[in-house]
Amino acid sequence: MPGDTPHHDRTAWAVLALVALANFGNFYVYDSIAPVAELLQRGRGFSDTQIGWLNAIYSLPNVVLLLVGGWMVDRFGAGRMMACTAALCFAGALVTAYGSGFPGMAAGRLLFGIGAETFNVARLAAIVGFFTGRHLAFAIGVSLALGRAGAFAVDLSPSWMPGAYAAGWQPPLVAAAAFAGLSLAASLAYLAVERRRAVMVRRAGAAALRFDRRQVLDFATPYWLLFALCVLWYAVIFAFRSTFSIKYFQHAHGLELAAAGAINGAVYAAALVATPLFGWLADRLGRPAPMLAVGALLLPLAMLAMMSAAFPLWIGTVLIGISYSLVPAVLWPLAARHVPGDRLGAAFALLSVGLNLGIAAANLVAGRLNDHFGAGADNPSGYGPMMLLFLASGALGFAFALLLWRAQER
User: Which of 43-57, 170-184, 246-260, 261-275 has the lowest mean pLDDT?
Assistant: First the structure.
């Protein structure tokens, strides 16, 4: 049974490898917009508001669809939903690369988003199905680390495939579609393993055909504090790091595209090692709330460092890297421990709904601020309001992390 899987079960580690590989492709496609942002402005005349929409539109449908997606994971099992949503992601990446103008690209990102977030819920449920107890945070950390390797690869892609970027905005997005195909292949392989081992998640209540709103409302106070932190923290991380950071580094800090991508990728380079390590520490120490508070604090400190001329840029990116390694490694396993097993998909889905709301809002507001204040290479100070927005959101997230710590101590 899933809960009885021993630490050295080869099948469990094979499952983790497949899930992590699928996550690699998913992260690569999501972060593929930032490296081509300036190329889209030069080649297609996109504004920062339009570029912000390309990631915001990914998140918007999930405000509603994720609740259904979480129920479907509980109802039909992680493997089926991973395969179906990975197929949607592949189709969305193709439409993004070959779509006509801004509407075509936006339609592709919308389709990708419809699949990608339910895919993430199914991925987490798959790991919980094979790893429980003291190994859960480590396994989730490994999965996240390999996913971030995909984002690291796309950040460095101007260096390892410069010819694609020299040819314009489209070839890098075609490469992203190829990685989405890799994610689909790994998801299908996981589905085959899951069927062979007969561990499809069919928990109590999963046979019900009617969606019950109590699945997403009747959680304890610590879960809702995690929810608030999740919304605020992810809004900053993804709106900044995945949409505007490379442009900000180019214009506000004078870096070339390849150098800006490399320093942005340092966030994920740190996460490759640190996320599993923090997951392992959380399993061993049994003190997730203080670890979560420390990770949340580092994000606003990173924004302050990057806004100040007194600190080199690498300090801010290192702080983001540590925060991005620590917070997810603790947050998702902690959420799994605060909800009943038969509502795990719904709980993960609701967290994902919140973070998608935050990411969409942050992308749209940041893009509008940049356009309103004329942010660009000739006016780097125009990025100031965007950075203040990210600073405030990160600081408020830290406040909720402290409230969670206090609640856990009680």
Answer: 261-275
